[in-house]
Amino acid sequence: MRLEPLLAALRELFGPRLSFGEVVNDQLPMLWDGVEESTAWLGDGTSPQEEGVWRLLSAAHDAAPEGMGRRGEHPGAWATASLEVVVEARGLRLVLLQGEREIASVAVPE
Fold first, then answer.
1. How far apart are CA 30 and CA 59, in angstroms?
2. Nearest to 96 by CA among 31, 20, 23, 15
3. Cα(12)–Cα(88) distance, integer angstroms
4. Prediction pTM value
5. For 52-96, how does the pLDDT look when each residue is reduced to its tens digit (9 = 90+)?
6. From residue 56, how far is each of 13, 26, 38, 68 by CA, in Å?
7. CA 63 to CA 28: how far, in whole Å?
8. Is residue 92 packed enough to be buried (19+ CB in 10 Å), middle (13-18) or exposed (0-12)?
């Protein structure tokens, strides 16, 4: 899977305050309001695709509440949401869940 559609999906899921730094040594910085809050290891190409996608989703999920918390904002449902990567016929779906209830999701085309 190409990185660009995945990053676009993460921006759609978490909003425009999430951005990304330059990849250095297979590490992608996750920025919230321009400040690095988390880093995702992109992998070495030997991991299953879903594992790498999950690492990116998890790092973005860490960056959002960290960034909001540092600015005195309450991250709401994001703070306690669980994450899921769903394999679909035409790509992946990134999902944030509150218990069994989906609070947000976005498709990542192949």
1. 7
2. 15
3. 18
4. 0.84
5. 888 888 888 888 878 888 788 877 777 778 898 988 888 899 999
6. 12, 12, 10, 18
7. 12
8. buried
Q: Can you tell me the distance from the alpha carbon of 55 to that of 66, in angstroms, rounded to the nearest whole number?
A: 16
| Secondary structure of the chain in HEC code, one letter for each residue | CCHHHHHHHHHHHHCCCEEECCCECCEEEEEECCEEEEEEECCCCCCCHHHHHHHHHHHHHHHHHHHHHHCCCCCHHHHHCEEEEEEECCEEEEEEEECCEEEEEEEEEC
Q: What is the mean pLDDT of residues 38-62?
A: 81
Q: Is the dihedral of CA 93, 94, 99, 101 positive or negative?
A: negative
